[in-house]
Amino acid sequence: MIAKLKQFFANPQAHLSDEERAEHLKLAAASLLLEVVMADETMSEQEAKLLPSLLTTTLNLASDDVHGLVHDAKQSQQSSTSLYEFTEAINDNFDIHQKQQLILAMWRLAYADGHLCQYEDQIIRRTAELLYLRHSELIQMRNIAMEQQGKPS
Predict the structure, then answer these.
(1) Which of 22, 38, 95, 145 is the most exposed place for a label (fewest CB within 10 A)?
(2) What is each CA distance from 63 to 39, 59, 124, in whole angstroms?
(3) What is the pTM of this model?
(4) CATH code for the domain in which residue 6 is found
């Protein structure tokens, strides 16, 4: 799966089936979510509980697909050299609403343990910049996540 993802990023214009493209995009988005989770080098219990829920709602996944995607995303995230590897594909295929929902999910993960680490904040801000979101959109998504903190997901 990692080799396919690298091939996809190396040649995004390659002829992929719609199913393959969708899988690559899910992996890229999940990898970005894991970037936030692992920014402080640990996955808290709250983050571990919230991640599968966010993957099912943000990426419209079946709950059965989440475990495999998280495993693949961990490998992808660990072998990545930059956020650009993931955001390039998302920019080419996600609309503005999908990008905002991804950033919202990232903020929700960052606040899941009740503490926003500076590295989580930096990753989310950099991702939003690479996704060409306005600063006001970034702040709006952060505020929504802060309001949702403490509420069931």
Answers:
(1) 95
(2) 25, 11, 25
(3) 0.83
(4) 1.10.3680.10
Largest pairwise CA distance in the chain: 44
Q: Which pLDDT tens digit goes with each residue over 19-51?
A: 888 888 889 999 999 999 888 887 888 888 898
Residues in the chain: 153
Nearest-angstrom CA–CA distance, 70 and 81: 18
pLDDT at position 40? 80
Residue 58's H or E segment, with its range, is helix 45-58
Condensed to tens digits (0 to 9), the pLDDT of residues 95-149 reads: 999 999 999 999 999 999 888 999 999 999 999 999 999 999 999 999 999 998 8
Closest CA to 5 of 89, 93, 111, 118: 89
CA distances from 113 to 46, 49, 50, 76, 145 (A): 6, 11, 10, 24, 12
Tokens at 152, concatenated:
């069931």
By residue range, what is the domain housing residue 103?
A: 2-148
Report yes or no: 77 and 31 within 8 Å, Cβ to Cβ. yes
